[in-house]
Amino acid sequence: MKPRQIPHTYVIVFAIAVITAILTWIVPAGEYARVEQSGRTVIDPESYHFVEQSPQTWQLFSSFFQGFVNQSGIIMFILLIGGAFWILNASKSIDAGIMSFLNLTKRLERVTTLRKIGVNNIVMILIMLMFSLFGSLFGMSEETIPFVVIVVPLAISMGYDSITGVCLVYVAAHIGFAGAILNPFTIGIAQQLSGLPLFSGMEYRIFCWMVINAVGFAIILWWANRVKKNPTSSPMYQLDEYWRKNHDTTTMNIEYKRTKSSWISFGLVITTMIVCSIIFPLSAIKIGNQIFNFPAIPVGTLLFAAVAIPGLLKSYHFYNLSLLFATIWFLVVGVMGYGWYVKEIGTLFFAMGLMAGIATGNTPNEITKLLLEGMRDILSAAMVVGLAGGIIVLLNDGKIIDTIMFELSKAMNEMSKTVSMGVVYLIQTVLNMIIPSSSAKAALTMPIMAPFSDLIGVSRQAMVMAFQLGDGFTNMITPTSGVLIGVLGMAKIPYDKWFKWAWKMMLVFIILGFLLLIPTIYMELNGF
Questions:
Q1: Closest CA to 355 of 323, 333, 311, 310
Q2: Is 283 in the same domain as 327?
Q3: How far apart are CA 392 and CA 75, in angstroms?
Q4: pLDDT by residue (tens digit) across 281-297?
Q5: Distance CA 295, CA 133 (A)
Q6: pTM for this prediction
Q7: Cα–Cα distance between 267 and 423 in angstroms, integer?
Q8: Which of 56, 59, 393, 476 is positioned for an S-S bond with 21, CB 3.0–4.6 A?
Q9: Do 192 and 147 touch, CB atoms closer than 8 A?
């Protein structure tokens, strides 16, 4: 008897698309009217009306084309990231960094106190805390994709698995995203549409962020230490051979050397940074609703020079690492100070890849070859992003999203406060599986949920919390999320294996989210 095969990711996505197309024949088509409010298009909650049915037939196939068009930014972003890191990986610079890091942890383990606590545990907590803060403060999501290529091989080299590596970056960022404190893409938009003061109720959200972090970090550390004790217990043990083979620091022979071309790369980069420092001496760094003027670009330039020059004198590997750190610095500055998104971030990493290729001593043809190899390696993940985008197209063109929202909200009219809040939370959680975009879902649901909260005697701030928590957790498991599919593609983790591992953690988070909502109903909280 042949063993049962798990469906390919493409098959899973196509099956969801088929089910969606069938629903457009069954679910009545309906729409809310959209109106302009404070410069933003929102839904008039009293305007729902049925419209002519729009069943999707051959559009099942054309939707994938439109999905690729709609998701083209993320697709191109993934391809550029894949190509850039392939160039960097070919130089063995990341491996050199991992070896240096592992040597440092071995030295730290000689300290008795640190050895008892566990140096690796401290390192993992610090990494997760950083990404959780980024997710909480400025909604880090797409920006996690390039970090996966760095942290996953690091986790493998430390004796863990690729699932641990993804947890340290992507899951940590979305723990912060769910327990957001100042995230403008969830809290900012939802509060604005609910008529609440921007970022009000922060004290309770800080408490929620701390609780969610404590639970999430504990789960991840438990898993990491389990894999450390028994590597074969990981469902990714065999597939992680890819990372062990390509980043095996025990057998790796790295030839450290200085190159003239690395000085050429440094000259090009530092000149560009100096010019940018002159043009932009101060950057308006936005954290929540606060803006701080900070010389981020000049400081970044000085830090890069201080790290890059010693690296150049040692080996181009360490110069390339300084280039990577500078890229991360300017990514944060660009996102928080200049509103960068995937186009600018992808361009930044593309430039990093080219400069790393030059520093390594590669010819233009060799750099091009490596770039194309990296894009080819990540193409499968980019394809899934486009295919998943087709599902959203079917839902919109079939005109059933508004109907689903209308029927679910209508069913809550005669429920208790706790049950109603639970239903709202469940609706937001389920909707996030269909509409991964937090801003789009806020525009769809908050103009309806905010007035509804007035009718049942629950504060609008509580509704914002239900939206925030419902929007955050399922990002880590929904197959329609282009970011999740991109992250899993970078980490070489099949979606089915990720789902099988992650669903229990998601259940814990979803229950925790509901428990955190209960005090917003019955306790006097500042801003609620």
A1: 323
A2: yes
A3: 16
A4: 999 987 656 788 999 99
A5: 21
A6: 0.67
A7: 59
A8: 56
A9: no
